[in-house]
Amino acid sequence: xxxxxxxxxxxxxxxxxxxxxxxxxxxxxxxxxxxxxxxxxxxxxxxxxxxxxxxxxxxxxxxxxxxxxxxxxxxxxxxxxxxxxxxxxxxxxxxxxxxxxxxxxxxxxxxxxxxxxxxxxxxxxxxxxxxxxxxxxxxxxxxxxxxxxxxxxxxxxxxxxxxxxxxxxxxxxxxxxxxxxxxxxxxxxxxxxxxxxxxxxxxxxxxxxxxxxxxxxxxxxxxxxxxxxxxxxxxxxxxxxxxxxxxxxxxxxxxxxxxxxxxxxxxxxxxxxxxxxxxxxxxxxxxxxxxxxxxxxxxxxxxxxx
Length: 306
Description:
This protein has helices at residues 2-5, 9-12, 29-33, 44-53, 63-81, 84-110, 121-146, 155-184, 190-193, 195-206, 212-226, 233-246, 278-284, 290-301. The chain is globular and about 60 Å long. Mean pLDDT is 91; it is low at 6-23. The protein has 14 helices and no strands. By secondary structure, the protein is mostly helical. The protein has a domain at 2-211.
């Protein structure tokens, strides 16, 4: 989930060098969202653990703890800058903004969540589960992008933190689901599951950024299906680049931009191997010019919250 939290980490992190997460887990992110920040701060142990979880060099932090820590830090910040009724209003209005946005985006994504149902019962069950999780993933990310803001004390801030925590927690569920499925199937290929569901499985792995070893495993599984058409080359290219970026290596196909937008609303590509041959490599994977894709991503990401 580093793609999402990296964009806001400097606003929430307090450095605790070498911090280890040995205490018991934080409350769930839904429980953290419901804490009474306006009438009393969380106990000292909870606050201390939240600080550890959001530290830049935190070790052993789970996505679920990360989602909760984001909300605990934000709730405390809202309470410290808004007194009494004003604080309660910020929390309530922020929750409403997030809920409305997520519901709108969920309906939008669900309207495109079609697929050809398999006649094999187990395959059909997996198709349905993966599609439902893909809807949660995509709607959550769209809500996160829609709710970007520079506000750090009001309803927009709380709505944005709720959206961030939701996306982080959704990624945790997605990764767990895909791990279990890849114990049963070598890959969710298009021949058995259909091209739409196969790509939905890929996107869930694509977002497992806290688990590059698992992403590499999935990439290796996908590679065996490339020659037979069981995997879209573009999906494979995107995950190849994601694994490279997440392990500190140059990407090959130029699909991964930097996490933050430039002041002029553009994005830069992360490091690419042999840049002069980039578009030629992209063509072999069914991808268009890198510059056009980068401009499209900038238009989608950088226009929000500005």
